[in-house]
Amino acid sequence: MNTPTPVLRLENIVKTFPGVRALDGVSLSVLPGEVHALMGENGAGKSTLMKVLGGIHQPDEGQVIVNERPVVMNGPLEAKALGIVFIHQELSLAEELSVAENVYLGELPTKGFGRVDWHELYQKTDAILAKLKVGFDAKTLVKDLSIANQQMVEIARALTVEAKVVIFDEPTASLTDAEKRVLFDVISDLQANDVGVVYISHRMEEIFKITDRISVLRDGQYQGSVATKDTDEEGVTQMMIGRKLDLTRKESNHELGKIALEVRNLSSGKAFNDVSFQVRSGEVVGFYGLVGAGRTEIAETLFGLRNKSSGEILLNGEVIDVKSPRDAIEKGISLVPEDRKGQGLVLGMNCRDNMTLPQVDDITAGPFVAEGAEIAIFDQYRDSLDIRTPGWKQDVGNLSGGNQQKIVIAKWLSMKPNVLIVDEPTRGIDVGSKSEIHKLLRKLASKGLAVIVISSEMPEVMHVSDRIVAMYSGRVTRTFECGEVTEDNLVQAISGVSKLA
Amino acid sequence: MKSINVKVLLKASPIWIFILFELVFFSVAGSYLSLSDKAFMDVDNMLLLLKQSAPIGIIAMGMAIIMINGNIDLSVGATFAIAAIVLLETMSSPMFEGLGDWVIPIAWGAALLVGTLLGAINGLIAWKTGVDAFIVTLGSMLGFRGLVFMFNGENPTSHLNWTLVDFAEAQFLGLHTATWFLLVVTAAIWYLMNRTVHGRNAYAIGNNREAAVNAGIRVGPHMMINFMLIGFLAALSAVVFYSESGSVNPNDGQLYELWIITAVVLGGTKLTGGSGSILSTLGGVIAIQLLRKGLGHIGADTSTVNLVIGSILILVLFLDRQINIKGREELKV
Fold first, then answer.
1. I want to staple B243 with a disulfide (CB 3.0 to 4.6 A). Which of A78, A92, A138, B168 is the partner?
2. Interface predicted TM-score of the whole assembly (ipTM), two decimals
3. At residue A95, what are phi and psi to the nearest 5 degrees?
4. Which CATH entry fits the domain spanning A8-241: 3.40.50.300, 2.30.40.10, 3.30.1330.10, 3.30.2310.20?
5. Quick check: B208 and A115 CB within 8 A?
6. Model confidence over B15-73: pLDDT tens digits?
7. Do the Cβ atoms of B214 and A92 come within 8 Å?
8. Chain A / chain B CB contacts < 8 angstroms
9. CB atoms within 10 A of CB A368
10. Chain A environment of B201 (Cβ under 8 Å)
11. What is the architecture of the domain spanning B39-317?
């Protein structure tokens, strides 16, 4: 064996939280100069493992070995001192502070008596920013940056120390293609300097493009590592969920109804401009674009959360004016929001009460809520949407992501909408439940509902939609019919390339 | 366009424009309504105003840090009263009788030490128990005030030292001693918050606590230091004020916390933390003192003054929201 010594090894890591064995004897090794993908469904233990690596959690059993020396890390700074840098998935930034202060957060350079050495701070940060080829400087306030640029600030942190291992947790979630290229350059630079890179992502095309090895976790257990060139998407998926996934899509064979929703030249401030589209009942229309392209903002405007500055919204041929979400619901427009836990559910409430929340005013017997009517609604949608829960008394917080999402969808379906808008329906939901949600959306359309699906995942929009509206920077660049869409022309449409052509 | 310029100006330094407005308003209104024939903008009057701003202003600097850090301290008024009692009791204590005026530094030191300790108690409890600072200091506000009453019942504690009175009434370069203390404290806190690692970390913690923790910043010790600092400043405020007055009532300092928080919020510091400016806090303090004095000048009584200040606080925060909103198309709340 002439393999190099790993820069980092994990041996039989066990981490338990009250009631959960989050990591169950996980072993992993990272070689210098390799890009090592860590994959697994949500809840498989990836984040916990990375927090152990980043010094945020301490393992109950097992050892972390850096350069063949067992180490104990109490806190992120100790991990960083050992050369382990963690680039967080959520933007972990203090927005009111400058870029430089964020890049060196927790270890600002000083010049005695705890005074910040601003000169050194700005100089070092600007040097890093130059490497990243970004268009802002060290003194910019983070709150003035776009989400993508904020992510670049996060990435800049990786370059502050002589890293031995850099962990990227879903780094591309909000990056444009150009920025992704810069990120991949950064990663190959790190590789060239014999740094081990751990790369967590759900995006298969990235995994197969940049990684050397793939390790898979399932339910806190290590499923093995494979060389990337020896496997394919199907193989990895099988390791992740333990079975094969049916991705074939049956062409919709039901008749489309009349136009349920039409939007003409709709604009709202800087968010989006001159947007027109139609949705027929029985049709699923996908909205695809990068983060910040204005998709969510359109949904918010349709749902009365945001004022339009010009344009018209027509529902069943009539011009309507949506003043508030209540107004939208009454007119038959429902929105399943992007952030399931934050905006869609009351996690500490049981399944039934979550489902009937928007209409609880209406199902009353005298001054009291009619329990029987509530349970009837719950039973109906549990069966029709196949929601797996021990009973209506279960707190929603205890359900899996897929079932939580179904509860949210059921909640809005029970309001009997004409138009259902679903924003990122499968974010944070594992692969198996994803296809179930997709089937559900198709089924709802086949029953005559007009469905709008907003998604950042290309396979998802391509799989679920009858037509796809591509957006770039607040404008519709192209509307694709089912037959004409390919990955290539879709990517071009959302990155603004086809507009130039 | 003119309206845009006004908006930009308001955004940049709203509190100083508000002060300017107050000055103009009270000068004009005063010339019609005031009973005294002195102008409102009289130099002596303004110097006195700064001096009167000092007790609240000195503590407000500490409160600004605490609030930028993402906490709040309701116990400052009670700490203020305890420090005052410690100051006066030490000076009248038979133990130091032979020392003459050398008792002054001892008494000052004792008061400042006690204030710092009380702050440390708040900080330690909030840190180690994880209970929200609002609750912790609500409890200590009641507790500390209880201590004040336990000490001397309903009776005032008094001791007048003429050397101290002379010191407190002195004017250097036209400004009173108390004003100098306020200015020095403001400068020191400004330096602390803008130039030191501790200050920048305090901003980071208030802004995004999780990010700070992820970056390895130890939230607890920073919080502890800030609470000790505000305790120290509450005591310093008492020391400066009671050196001159020489008598403390057990109810002194009550509602200080609310005036102070009002001043800090008027100065633009967010209740949620992470954002705020020390200089604007000084502006907030002066703005409130101007309101109280100005309304008195045109003949309003105390209850009217409170009503007006309360309304203005809400109005200012509403205007601030309107100005900072990015447009009509913003997401509704």
1. B168
2. 0.79
3. -65, -30
4. 3.40.50.300
5. no
6. 888 888 888 888 888 777 766 666 777 888 888 889 999 999 999 999 999 999 999 99
7. yes
8. 90
9. 7
10. 106, 108
11. Orthogonal Bundle (1.10)
